[in-house]
Write a structure and sequence with these properties.
Chain lengths: ~280, ~260
């Protein structure tokens, strides 16, 4: 394993409920860089993060983080390693019974023996960084979607992880909070030299912050390169994705073996079987 | 024919698999976290135990009152109404208190546990806890399991006490049974090991079964709104059936001198 890489994924195979999700994925995440993993919905991008975080085990292949094989670690070693990883969930996944402040303080409380005053300072620093120090007394149910994700970001950062994984950070955000998140992800990476993996299908935002991009489709890496290289890619599938064309090599229509006209003509009197 | 056999086999495998998962889950879920374990446990005892007190006390009083009323109607024909205290106490201690409290507990605390853990799973709170490096089995599951194990036997004691009080209200204050004989027949007939201890053993067994079912159903459910509703129903149905079934077995072992 190359020391300049924090994460290396080799020849990864994974299937779930009989469906092959990955068949031979190789990718590397260099230290201190933002690596984006893109691809159409349903290609298993979130699954890939769960494989990297050790929540799922692959059928074949290896995931190394800082020279350790994630899936060979014992349960307690795995939990210890996760203290150095942060993950921002798409839903935020804040603990609904704790206030904003307690959510951010939670990882510090459980993993350190710091005095209460220092925990308070650390949590407030993280909340200040995402601009929500003033919202510390609110409960998660009182937050908007954008605020939820920023609190979740503050919580993911609370132990200053070496690696942070963003799962669809831009989905469902209004333009302002989208801009805020893009800025935050960029700043965190530059200021703290934090390694980041961004999983997303928001092309413009992702390409604007990523150092290197992998496009995944049909269980493999379909294309990789810097954002500039991908913009000029000649592969029609990559070009369709990067330029957001509705139809192309990835068809607009879900495959069916019956012609549309036949389907309509056959129509009256037939009951649609939905099961 | 072959298809039916295959379906039967598949069903059996699924059931065995779930049983295996639930046993592993129970063993892994018994370890309380070292840090703040007591605090988490007390919070859950408040939630599943203290907050279940009102329903248990109200039910206990009514069941005791009904027992005394029904018992009196039968006993008075034999001029044996003095034995009302014995009858109320033994029915409560041996059967009604452990069983009815466990059924109430499955309905109130069990369903709430399933829904709460299920919602935590559906909103990825359990996953995010894992990613923070905290084992949800220790932090979320263990306090709830132990809280159930501790709370239900204590609730059963409350049920028995207020049930006897309810029986006293009806038997002595209303129907006019002599209060001295109400208590003395009870004192003479109730044995600590045979009646009180056996009742408590039942209650501990029910506590383990009901809490285990409730917490496992919440942890193992399909994280959708349908999944949560199905699992909550299963908690109450399986929990209640398990209590009634276990009660028969335990009664046969404890009192069926053969």
């Amino acid at each position: 394993m190359n020391d300049s890489n924090l994460v290396e994924v080799e020849d990864l195979y994974f299937s779930r409920s009989g469906r092959q999700i990955f068949s031979g994925v190789d990718l590397v995440v260099p230290k201190g860089k933002i690596t984006a993993i893109m691809g159409p919905s349903g290609t298993g991008k979130t699954t890939l993060l769960k494989l990297i975080g050790g929540q799922l085990a692959p059928d074949r292949g290896r995931v190394h983080i800082a020279n350790k094989d994630v899936h060979r670690l014992s349960r307690s070693e795995l939990f210890r390693m996760r203290r150095r990883m942060g993950m921002l969930f798409q839903s935020g996944a804040l603990f609904s019974d704790l206030s904003v402040f307690e959510n951010v303080a939670f990882p510090i409380r459980v993993h350190t023996n710091l005095p209460e005053t220092m925990i308070r300072d650390l949590a407030l620093i993280k909340l200040q960084a995402v601009g929500l120090r003033g919202a510390r007394a609110l409960m998660p149910s009182e937050l908007s979607g954008g605020m939820t994700r920023r609190v979740a970001l503050a919580r993911a950062l609370s132990l200053d992880p070496d690696l942070i994984m963003y799962d669809e950070p831009f989905v469902g955000q209004d333009p302002i909070s989208m801009g805020v998140l893009v800025k935050l992800i960029r700043q965190l990476n530059q200021a703290f030299n934090m390694t980041a993996i961004v999983v997303s299908h928001d092309i413009k935002e992702t390409l604007s912050i990523a150092d290197y991009v992998y496009v995944i489709s049909d269980g493999r890496v379909m294309a990789k390169g810097s954002p500039e290289e991908l913009g000029k890619a000649s592969d029609p599938r990559v070009s369709q994705f990067v330029h957001g064309e509705p139809d192309g090599p990835v068809p607009f229509h879900y495959p069916t073996d019956v012609d549309f006209a036949d389907d309509i003509l056959r129509g009256s009197g037939l009951k649609e079987r939905t099961s | 024919m072959i298809n039916q056999l295959a379906a039967l086999g598949r069903g059996t495998i699924n059931v065995l698999e779930a049983l295996g998962r639930s046993v592993i889950f129970l063993v892994m879920g018994l370890r309380l976290p070292l840090q703040n374990g007591l605090g988490l446990l007390l919070r859950q005892i408040h939630f599943v135990g203290v907050l279940s007190l009102p329903i248990v006390i109200v039910s206990g009083v009514f069941i005791g009152m009904v027992l005394a009323l029904q018992g009196y109607v039968v006993l008075v024909d034999f001029s044996a109404e003095e034995a009302l205290g014995q009858m109320v106490a033994l029915s409560l201690l041996r059967e009604l208190a452990p069983v009815v409290t466990a059924l109430l507990f499955a309905g109130r605390a069990g369903s709430a546990l399933t829904a709460e853990i299920g919602l935590m799973k559906a909103t990825e709170q359990l996953t995010s806890m894992e990613m923070i490096g905290v084992d949800p089995l220790k932090r979320v599951i263990a306090p709830r399991l132990w809280a159930g194990f501790i709370s239900l036997p204590v609730l059963t004691v409350f049920f028995s006490v207020v049930g006897i009080f309810g029986g006293y209200l009806v038997g002595v204050d209303w129907l006019g049974v002599y209060s001295g004989s109400f208590w003395s027949t009870m004192q003479n007939s109730v044995l600590f090991t045979d009646d009180i201890l056996n009742g408590m053993v039942k209650s501990v067994v029910f506590a383990v079964v009901v809490t285990w079912i409730a917490v496992f159903q919440g942890y193992d459910l399909e994280p959708t709104s349908e999944g949560i509703s199905r699992a909550t129903t299963r908690t109450v149905v399986y929990g209640s059936l398990a209590v009634l079934g276990m009660d028969f077995i335990l009664t046969a072992l404890m009192f069926g001198e053969f």
